[in-house]
Amino acid sequence: MRAFAGRMRGVIGARLRLCHARLEAGYAQPLELRPALDRLESGLDEVKATLGALQASQARHERLSRVHHDELGRLRGHLTALRTSDAYAATFQNRAALVSIPIATYNAAELLVERAIASVLAQSYPTWEIVVVGDGCSDDTEARIRALGDARIRFVNLPFRTLSGDNPDERWLVSGAAPQNLAVELSRGEWLAPLDDDDEFLPDHIEVLLGLALANGAELAYGKLVSADGREWFAAPPAFEQIGMQSVLYLRALGTFFEWDTRSWAIEEPADWNLIRRMREAGVRMAATDVPVTRYYPSERTRV
Q1: In Å, what is the CA distance from 112 to each residue of 18, 104, 159, 232?
Q2: Is 133:103 a contact under the CB 8 Å cutoff?
Q3: I want to staple 250 with a disulfide (CB 3.0 to 4.6 A). Which of 1, 67, 114, 220 is the partner?
C-alpha cells in the first residue's frame, strides 16, 4: 500500500509537470488545462494525505509489535518475584560467590583457548567456572578444552548449527544466541559474566564488576570495552553500540527469564543489545564503571 501511494504520487507529479510545461510552451490554452491541473493537484493532495496516514499507521504497528515482542510485562512480573524471594538478599552478601562464564563458540578453537579461556585463567578473582557451548562445532574445540585438564571448564557441543535463513545480516544479529542460552542454563554460579570466544577479560574483570554489583545492590554491572588500537565503548546508561554483553556481569537468577532472543533479527537488533535493552526497560538495577574490563576484537568478526 505504501509503495502504491508512492507510485501514484510520482505519476500525478509527472502529469502536473507536463501540464505546466505545455502551458509555458504555449501548446494549450490556460483555460483548457486548468480543470485538469485542479484535478491533478487535488489528487496529489489526497495521495499525500493517504501516505501520511499509512506512515503513521506503520509507525504505530512497529511500536506495538516491539512491545509484544519484548514481553516487558511478563519480565517485570518475574523481576518482582525474584526481588521478594528468600535467596535474593543473601546473594548480595556473598563476596566469594561462584561466577559462571558462559561462552558460545563455533569453530574458533585457537582463539577460544588461547585468548578467551586464557583470560579467565588469569583472573584475580578465583571462584569461577566456564561453560562453553558449541554451535555444532566441527573442529578440534573439544580436544583443545580437554587438553587443558581443568575441571572448572566444561564443554557441550550442539549436534547441529542453530543459525538458519539466507540473510547473512539477520544471521549475524543472532549468532551465538541459542548456544548462549544453553550455556546460561547449564551455569551453576550465582552470577554470570558472558564472554565471546574471540575476546578477552582484563585481569580484574570479575573482581571489579562483582565488587561494583555488591556495593550498589545492582543486579547487573558493566564496565568499558577497549580495543588493542585504543578505541573505547562505554555509555551510562547503556546505549546501542556502546556496550556488549562481554563487559557485563549479572545475576544468574535473571537468566532464568531474560533469555538471548533468537528472533531479535525481526526487530533489527543484535541479540546482545536486545537483551541489555530489555533488561533496562524492564527495570533491572544497573551499575556502571568507566574502568576498562574487557578487550574487544571487532576487526576479527565476520558475519556468517
Answers
A1: 65, 10, 19, 22
A2: yes
A3: 220
Of 275, 272, 279, 287, the closest CA to residue 221 belongs to 287
Q: Which residues of 120-150 are buried (b: 16+ CB within 10 A; e: fewer)?
A: beebebebbbbbbbbbebeeebeebbeeeee
**Cα gap 173→266, rounded to integer Å:** 10
Neighbours of 238 (CB within 10 A): 20
| Max CA pair span of the chain | 94
Residues 265 and 274: beta-carbon distance below 8 Å: no
Is the four-CA dihedral 126, 128, 129, 134 of positive or negative sign?
negative
Mean pLDDT of 19-30: 57
pLDDT the model gives residue 36: 66
**Gap between the Cα atoms of 228 and 209, Å rounded:** 21
pLDDT, tens only, 255-289: 999 999 998 888 889 999 999 999 999 999 999 99
Across the strands, what pairs with 102? 131
| Burial (CB count <10 Å: 0-12, 13-18, 19+), residue 21 | exposed
**Residue 201: helix, strand or coil by DSSP?**
strand
- Whether 304 contacts 175, CB under 8 Å: yes
Dihedral class, residue 217 (left if φ above 0, else alpha if ψ from -120 to 50, else beta): left
CA-nearest of 227, 282, 298, 216 to 249 is 216
β-strand 99-105 against 128-134: which pairing, if any? parallel
